[in-house]
Structures are given as structure tokens and as C-alpha cells.
Amino acid sequence: MTNTDRQTDPQDPEYADAPAARINPHIPHPARIYDYLLGGKDNFASDREAAEALIKLSPGTREGVRAHRAFVGRAVRYLAAEAGVTQFLDIGTGLPTQDPTHVIAQRAVPEARVAYVDNDPIVSVHGRALLTGDPAGATEMIEADLREPEKILNDPAVRDLLDFTRPMAVILAGILHFVTDEENPFGVVEQLKAAVPSGSHLLLSHITMDFADHLSREEFTKPYDKSSAPMVPRSHDETMRFFDGWNLLEPGLVEVVTWRPDLTEYQEEIPGGHAWAYGGLAIKP
């Protein structure tokens, strides 16, 4: 029996530990919902149903997600091309199908090294197959949960790939709004910040209700109620707390569409006018 067979045969005793055994197609997952909204194909009916509920709630959801992805791309491009960052720890990466971090970074710095982390088994399975980049650099996909930062930081694959004595970029794009207050999101981020040296960067984005006065919190978060992670939108002040002690780069923490827009790129109009997400980039003093 091949390794692939072992991952897909429920009769095999090792099946329970295989990624395929841990994928529940009936429970929507944020990474797969995001994949569907970006036009990807690695999602299930439950994910598509949740995504369509979001679109019904806000007709600009698809455009907002693409605007968020474009913000991440601009920030990573700045980090590699202008800030000289060669190491990236991308947590909650989702499916790397739309210009992922390593592709953007290695265009500017071929030797860039990227460790991807996600807790969805389907991301691990498909991600490893998609992680082809410049041979001068290196990428790795690790299955782990942001809520357990010590496991990420001590993972042998992460430690082998990244040098924690040298500055790196920690990317938390579109992930922290799936960590509830009871799960200590600010403490989690502080552990990650403490683990990297001076000169490191924090790239962060977060869903907000600051532009959704017409909706109640219950309406806003309802499409994620049955997902593997409920959504917790946070205000500008709450999101700013994640950057405590670090220096925010211009233009600060702003709506993702207004973070250093690239006027040479097509600017997609978002129905409703807002992407409902803040984004920012900071450096450790």
C-alpha cells in the first residue's frame, strides 16, 4: 500500500492520523471559505454555503477579500524588495493559490525562506503540492494552530528553515478575528513578537465592524456560526493593541484598500465602498 493509499483508506490503522481523516467537509472552515471567495476550487459545499451567506449579507464581500489579498501582496512586496526581509513566518496562510507569500517575496529576493502554518488539514495536503518557488529559496508547510504559538515556534521544520537570531516578518493576515477573546489573542501575538529579534516586522490584518453600522454583530458574524472558528470582529483601537511596543510604519493601521495603494494596478470598486478590514505593518525596535 502506498502512502497515498494509507491517507485515504479508512480501514488502515494509520488513517486516523492522516490529514484526510481530519478533513470534515460538513463544517465550513475559514481557509476554504476564503479560497472560494478568491475563486479557488479547494472547498466544499458547506464552505460555499457560508461564503454565499456572506455575499448576501454584503454584496462587496468578494471584492473586499480580493482587496485584502492585494494589501497582503503589497506589504510582502515592500518587505522583500525595500525592507530587505528574507525570512517569513506566515501563520493562518490558507490555501496558497493566489500569489502566495513565497512567490511574491522570491521575485524580489530569490533566496527568501517562507514557513507557512495553518490548522486546516486540506491546506497541508494541497499546500505542499503547490509550494514551488525559486530554487535559491525554501518553503515549508506546517500543520499547527495559532492558538498554540509555542508549538509553532518549537516546530523542528520551522526551526530548520528560519533563523530566529535574524530579523524576519511574522504574517498574521486575516487570522486573528478567528481567535476569541477567551483564547487570549493578544497574549498569543505577544509570544510571537517576543520570539523574534529587533528589526523584525509584524504584518497584520483584521476584520472590523467599524464600517458596518447598518448591521448588528450577530448579523455580521452569523455566516461563521457553524464553522470551525467563529468570527470576532474588532475595532481600530482593539486591533492597534496587537502592535503594542512596535513601531507602525506609514500610513499606520488603516483600511486595507488605503494601505500604500499601487496606482499602477487595477483598482477594483467595492460595492458598499469598504473592505471591512484593517491592515498594518510594524517593526520591532
Q: What does the model show?
A:
InterPro entries: SAM-dependent_MTases_sf, SAM_dep_MeTrfase_SAV2177_type. GO terms for molecular function: methyltransferase activity. This is SAM-dependent methyltransferase. Its EC number is 2.1.1.-. Keywords: Methyltransferase, Transferase. The protein has 285 residues and is α/β, with parallel strands linked by helices. The protein has a single domain, classed as Vaccinia Virus protein VP39 (Rossmann fold, 3-Layer(aba) Sandwich), CATH 3.40.50. 34% of the residues lie in helices and 14% in strands. The chain has eleven helices and eight strands. Strands 1, 2, 3, 4, 5, 6, 7 and 8 form an eight-stranded mixed β-sheet that branches. Strand 4, helix 9 and strand 5 form a beta-alpha-beta unit. Helix 2 packs across helix 3. The radius of gyration is 18 Å and the shape is globular. The relative contact order is 0.15. The N terminus is likely disordered.
Give the helices and strands, then pairings.
Layout: H1 3-8, H2 30-37, H3 45-57, H4 61-81, E1 87-91, H5 101-108, E2 113-118, H6 121-130, E3 138-143, H7 149-153, H8 156-161, E4 169-173, H9 185-194, E5 201-207, H10 217-221, H11 236-240, E6 247-248, E7 254-255, E8 277-283
Parallel strand pairs: 1-2, 1-4, 2-3, 4-5
Antiparallel strand pairs: 5-8, 6-8, 7-8
How many DSSP-defined strands? 8
CATH class, please?
Alpha Beta
Overall mean pLDDT score?
A: 82
Low-confidence stretches: 1-19
Order of helices and strands: HHHHEHEHEHHEHEHHEEE
Question: Tell me, what's the shape?
Answer: globular
- The helix-and-strand class reads alpha/beta
